[in-house]
Amino acid sequence: MKTKHLIPLLLALFLALPFRAQALDQNEPTIYVIKKGDTLWGLSERFIKDPNYWPNMWSKNSQITNPHFIYPGQKVRIFPDRLEIVPTPNSKTAAAQQKTIKPDIVQEVAEEKLFPIRGNEGFLLENGTKPFGSIISGHHDRVLIGVDDMVYTDIGAINGVKGGEKFAIYKAESAVSHPLTSEIMGKKIVPLGTLQLTDVERTASRAIITRNYQEISPGSYLLPLRENPRREVALKMATIDLKGYIVESATGTGIIADGDIVYIDLGSNHGAEPGNMLYVVRDVKVDQRYAEGRVERLPQELLGALVILETGKKTATALVVKSIDAIYKGDKIVTAPK
Fold first, then answer.
1. Does residue 229 sit within a domain?
2. In the chain, how many domains are there?
3. Which residues pair with residue 221 across a beta bridge?
4. Tens of pLDDT along 258-283?
5. 208 and 284: one domain?
6. What CA dihedral angle connects 327, 328, 329 and 334, to 10 degrees?
7. Domain around 277
């Protein structure tokens, strides 16, 4: 009786072995070797079809202190739902790997990620900075002005301009104060549209509205229009350690998420440059009821990332490219979380 029951059992186990082995093979990761030109953004888009995944690697891969800091020869484990950087012992080992390891999976290089500037992001007009001019009235004293309407400005030949020159139109909103220090960072400037000068007198000019994003009215600020306001910014590794704060969002909403434009308290005076990517982090408070003084600081909570699009002297306009959790005005931004 025992043999009679044992044979079917062994047969069942034998038949199950190939399926078990196949299941194990499916869980084995594919190994990809990073080549020159690869980025975490590109690898995420290429292998797991989610270009926004890579910030999730930060908290799981402590050796990645900058999302742009990957190098040829470094290995990546590719699972169906995630990527993992294979740790390397030291820089010498990494250099040796670069010479000895050959890419064994994919020969194509992931494309660099570019971030668009559309020209309607706005910025902070810093203290002491003045607009080039302003709209002083609409044709026939019109208060609400749109495309193809005529307006008059206080920009004239005395300012070195001539007919045909183009200007960007902005609305100045309330002053923005720093969420921690209460220092006035500047006025939030909202893009309204563009105009082109048609007739120029000594101290004034007539112009035509060529584009409008919002309704335009007398008193709107004017600044020289860039030749190519719609352009792209590529990732650029920060050359120095940057630390600052988000001071305001373009929309003024309380919760900030992917795709939102924000203004930060870092500018060219601090070494910030367009293309720099910064982590958004938040300090986690230690509950001393349980730590009893044994723990001084907890690892920072990683909230997301932003890329600087344009810089002023003390402030910059940035695009939030990833939000793992809700981001708020006053959250910290750093080049590397701790």
1. no
2. 3
3. 134, 170
4. 899 999 999 999 999 998 889 898 88
5. no
6. -40
7. 235-334
CATH of the domain at 272: 2.40.10
Chain segment 222-254, per-residue pLDDT in tens: 999 876 666 788 877 777 889 999 999 998 888
Residues 135 and 98 in one domain: no
Of 256, 274, 249, 275, the closest CA to residue 324 belongs to 256
Q: Are residues 241 and 320 located together in one domain of the fold?
A: yes
Q: What is the mean pLDDT of residues 123-146?
A: 91
pTM of the predicted model over 0.70: no
Same domain for 58 and 107?
yes
| HEC assignment per residue over the chain | CHHHHHHHHHHHHHHHHHHHHHHHHHHCCEEEECCCCCCHHHHHHHHCCCCCCHHHHHHHCCCCCCCCCCCCCCEEEECCCCEEECCCCCHHHHHHHHHHCCCCCCCCCCCCCEEEECCCCCEEECCCCCCCEEEEEEHHHCCCECCCCEEEECCCHHHCCCCCCEEEEEEEEEEEECCCCCCEEEEEEEEEEEEEEEEECCCCEEEEEEEECCCECCCCEEEECCCCCCEEEECCCCCCCCEEEEEEECCCCCEECCCCEEEECCCHHHCCCCCCEEEEEECCCCCHHHHCCCCCCCCCEEEEEEEEEEECCCCEEEEEEEECCCEECCCEEECCCC
Q: Which residues pair with 307 in a beta bridge?
A: 277, 319
Cβ(170)–Cβ(223) below 8 Å? yes
